[in-house]
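> example.struct
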């Protein structure tokens, strides 16, 4: 008698119980485990629910819609004049009345600084602030974490460090530095490891381990990026003319260092214009049939709209694959209003005068600037030198990720911006830049990344206002804004509601679509 013959009668009696066990395990027990894993990820117990309001931003326009969410996705977007009824056995209906329901904001320019400079910021605090500001995804810059993210190993290490610490989804830009700019293998490894694109500086970055690239270095990276269809983002300042060394952190003490105008003069418009001129020259390679057809050049944080923008406009018109962002702080503040010694307003390129601010707004409304970011670039409070108020030596970087939505709305609505335009600059356009096809709009099948906010509610950011980023120094302090975030959903999980975050941080690292 063989073993099989022995087992056969045994198995015969066991077949049905075994089958039942397997089916039960798969249908009941496994989902239970998944649910437990997910427990604490959402403030809402439901995994199937409907959001309703009179002002939902859809691809068909803004109006009364219900948005049905099941699991991590949007499963329907339906126009209807009244909220559906909450009935037993049916998905719960969350009726937000006249509030705005909009795709979550995507901020493609943030410095979370972890690992390495966690005293400046970190995954946990940075993404808590983002969630409270209605941001559902960010793309993190390769600096100022330490080490900077210039190799595959560094990126893998960073992705590991984010585990269990992100409340929203986080993608990563890799860093382009002179050392590897001409080394296709290192760049390909970095892109294979998950960098959504590359980022480089055309001037000193403020930290020693992220040196500046020349236009030639950038040009060398473009064919590699073309192969992957990914962008390079460039900090568009070159030290030209090199007349004033005062902006350098280690410079000799100079008189008038508390004067904002003094700082502004130290980083003239010509720095931006010349960098963009050089950059648009190499961006010609991205044109159809060019050696870098498939790559894309993105100008970050445009501050100057007087001389620089026309060069970008021309490059676009001539067929180069180019986009440009500006930041919420350039749209919210003006040099004339910055008090002496108020280094919380120091950033690079600098905030310019109010006439320039109006030109930035005009360029956005005319479609010449593609999108907005926060360039949330915090440091420890001591590096801001608030007591000395020394603009020349203080860390250059504004913390503001939590206030991007209200600042943009307050200043934009005063200039005729619509909610849909804002949504385009803060969600659809950045989703396109980072190539996140599942994000950026409220549509069937997309990630349920959603912000609900009240455009009419206003508030003052004062000492009592809950600020979630680590070092609570911000240019937005003391200002009044309208546009209050009510709640934020990330892939169907309610991660923030009225001052409360979900108990667990269940955001995911974003991997490139291949
Ligand atoms: N290193 C760094 O984050 N620099 C940023 N800060 C800023 O104001 N502009 C920048 O590029
Ligand atoms: Zn920059
Ligand atoms: Zn930056």
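> example.seq
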């Amino acid at each position: 008698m063989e073993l099989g013959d022995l087992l056969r009668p045994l198995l015969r009696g066991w077949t049905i119980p075994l089958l039942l066990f397997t089916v039960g395990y798969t249908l009941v027990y496994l989902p239970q485990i998944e649910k437990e894993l997910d427990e604490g990820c959402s403030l809402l117990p439901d995994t199937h629910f409907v959001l309703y309001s009179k002002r939902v931003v859809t691809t068909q326009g803004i109006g009364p819609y219900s948005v049905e969410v099941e699991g991590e996705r949007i499963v329907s977007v339906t126009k209807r004049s009244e909220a559906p009824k909450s009935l037993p056995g049916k998905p719960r209906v969350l009726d937000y009345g006249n509030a705005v329901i909009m795709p979550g904001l995507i901020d493609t320019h943030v410095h979370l600084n972890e690992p390495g400079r966690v005293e400046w910021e970190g995954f946990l605090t940075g993404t808590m602030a983002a969630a409270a500001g209605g941001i559902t995804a960010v793309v993190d810059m390769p600096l100022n974490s330490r080490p900077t993210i210039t190799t595959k190993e560094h990126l893998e290490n960073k992705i590991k460090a984010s585990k269990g610490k992100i409340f929203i989804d986080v993608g990563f830009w890799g860093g382009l530095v002179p050392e590897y700019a001409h080394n296709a293998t290192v760049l390909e490894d970095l892109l294979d490891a998950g960098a959504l694109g590359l980022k480089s500086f055309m001037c000193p970055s403020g930290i020693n381990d992220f040196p500046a690239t020349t236009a030639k270095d950038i040009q060398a990276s473009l064919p590699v990026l073309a192969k992957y269809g990914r962008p390079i983002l460039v900090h568009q300042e070159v030290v030209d003319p090199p007349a004033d060394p005062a902006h350098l952190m280690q410079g000799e003490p100079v008189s008038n260092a508390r004067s904002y105008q003094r700082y502004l003069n130290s980083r003239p418009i010509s720095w931006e214009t010349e960098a963009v001129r050089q950059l648009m020259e190499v961006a010609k390679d991205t044109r159809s049939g060019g050696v870098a057809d498939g790559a894309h050049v993105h100008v970050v944080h445009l501050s100057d709209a007087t001389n620089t923008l026309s060069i970008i406009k021309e490059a676009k018109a001539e067929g180069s694959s180019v986009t440009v962002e500006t930041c919420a702080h350039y749209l919210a503040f003006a040099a004339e209003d910055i008090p002496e010694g108020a280094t919380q307003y120091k950033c690079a390129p600098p905030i310019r005068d109010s006439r320039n601010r109006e030109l930035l707004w005009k360029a956005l409304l005319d479609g010449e600037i593609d999108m907005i970011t926060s360039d949330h670039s915090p440091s420890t409070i001591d590096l801001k030198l608030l007591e000395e108020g020394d603009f020349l030596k203080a860390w250059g970087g504004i913390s503001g990720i939590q206030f991007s939505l209200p600042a943009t709305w307050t200043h934009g609505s005063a200039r005729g911006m619509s909610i849909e335009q804002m949504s385009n600059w803060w969600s659809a356009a950045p989703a396109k830049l980072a190539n996140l096809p599942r994000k950026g709009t409220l549509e069937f099948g997309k990630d349920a990344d959603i912000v609900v906010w009240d455009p009419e509610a206003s508030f003052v950011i004062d000492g009592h206002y809950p600020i979630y980023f680590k070092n609570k120094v911000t240019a937005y302090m003391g200002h009044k804004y309208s546009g209050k975030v009510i709640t934020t959903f990330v892939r169907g999980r309610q991660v923030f509601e009225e001052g409360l975050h979900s108990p667990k941080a269940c955001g995911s690292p974003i991997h490139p679509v291949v």
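> remarks
The domain at 104-244+268-383+398-441+458-482+491-501 is CATH 3.20.20.140 (TIM Barrel).
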